[in-house]
Amino acid sequence: MSSRDGQQGETAPQLRIPTHVAIIMDGNGRWAQARGLPRLAGHRAGTENLRRIIEACVEFGIRYLTIYAFSTENWARPRDEVEGLMSIMEEVIDKEVPELHRQGVQIRHIGALEGVRPELQRKIREAIELTRHNQRLVLVVAFNYGGRAEIVHAVRQILAAGLKPEEVTEAIFAQYLYTAGIPDPDLVIRTSGEQRISNFLLWQTAYSEWYFTPVYWPDFDKAELRKALEAYSRRERRFGRVSAVDMSAAPRDG
Ligand code: FPP
Questions:
Q1: Who is most buried in 13, 94, 114, 216, counting CB within 10 A?
Q2: Which CATH number describes the domain made up of 17-249?
Q3: Is the CB of 218 under 6 A from ligand 1?
Q4: What are phi and psi of 54, to 5 degrees?
Q5: Cα-to-centroid distance, 250 and ligand 1 (Å)
Q6: 191 Cβ below 6 A of ligand 1
Q7: Closest Cα to residue 137, out of 195, 55, 73, 71?
Q8: Can you give the residue ranges of every domain in the chain?
Q9: What is the pLDDT of residues 99-137, one digit of tens each?
C-alpha cells in the first residue's frame, strides 16, 4: 500500500522513523501559569506526558529517546522548584520504573551524579542496573547534565588515561562522552517556541535535524510527535555533502 496522501498507519513507507530522538521538554512553567497553577503542577503534567510520549516512541519504533530532565543550570532556579523537581524525579522512579522495565525500556543516565541527593543517586543507579539488558527502547535521561561540562569531563578522562595527542580522534573522543555507545540524535525536538540549544548534547547534535514547535511540553502528545516525524521525513540529510539533486544536475566528467 503506498499513497501520497499521508493518511496511512504508523508503518506507512513515507514516515521515516529516526533511530534516536532527543527532546528539550520546555514550557511546563508557562503551561501551569496559563492555568493559574503553580510551576510544579506544570512539571507534574510534563511528567505525565513523558509517560505517554515514551509509549508513543515504542509504538513508532524509535530505538533511543533522550530527554533533558534537569540541566546543570537548573540548580539556579528557586529552591522550592529545585526541591520539587528532585521529589518528582524520586516519585517517578518509584512509580514508573517497574512498568518501564516490563515494557522492555532500558534506562541510561547522562550527566553528573555528584551533588545529587544520595537517596536519588541510589534510585537512579538501581533503575539503570535493573533495566540494563532491555532492548526495546533506550531512554537516556539527561539529569544534572550540561554539554560543556560533558566535554570537559571527557577531556579530563582522556588526560587521566594518558592518551597521546595523535591518539585522540573524533571516534575516540566520543567514547569518553557520557553518551558512549549511543548513536547521535537524528532529530531534536524543542517545545514551547524557544529556539536555543541550551547546552544540550553540543557534540552529539552536530548533524541532527531540529524541530521547533510552539506547543508547551505537557500538551505535546502523540499527534504532535507524528507531526515532528513527518517534518523529519521531508528533510534531506546531507552531513555536509552535496545534495542528491545537485549531484544529478552536475556536469559529468569524461
Ligand atoms: C522546562 O520547563 C522543563 C524542565 C526544566 C524540567 C523538565 C522536567 C520534567 C518534564 C519532569 C521531570 C522529568 C523526569 C525525567 C521525571 P520550564 O520550567 O523551563 O518551563 P517555562 O520555560 O515555561 O518556565
A1: 216
A2: 3.40.1180.10
A3: no
A4: -60, -45
A5: 48
A6: no
A7: 55
A8: 17-249
A9: 999 999 999 999 999 999 999 999 999 999 999 999 999
